[in-house]
Amino acid sequence: MERAKLILKALEERGYKSYIVGGAVRNLLLGLPQHDIDILTLAPPEEVESTALEKGWKVKKIGATFGVLILVVDDKPYEVATARKEAYGSHSHRPEYVEYTSDIMEDLSRRDFTINAMAMDLKGNIIDPFGGRKDLEKGIIRAVGDPEERFKEDGLRPFRAVRFAAQLGFEIDEQTYRAIPKALHRVKGLSVERVRGELERILVAPYASKGMDMLLKTGLAGTQCLSRGEGEEKHVDVLPELYHLVDLEQSRRYHTLDAWKHTLAVIDNTPSDLILRWAALLHDVAKGLPGIRGVNKRGELSDWGHDKKGAQMAEEILTRLKVSQSVKNRVCWLVKNHMTLPNPDKKSLIKWLRKQSLNFKSQQELSTALWQLLTLCRADIKGGMVNPNFSQLDEIMESAKNVLKSIPFYEEELVIRGKEAAEVLGKGPQVKKFLRDLLIRIQSGEMSNTEEELREALNRKARRLQKKREDLNT
Question: β-strands 171-172, 140-141: how paired?
Answer without folding.
Answer: parallel
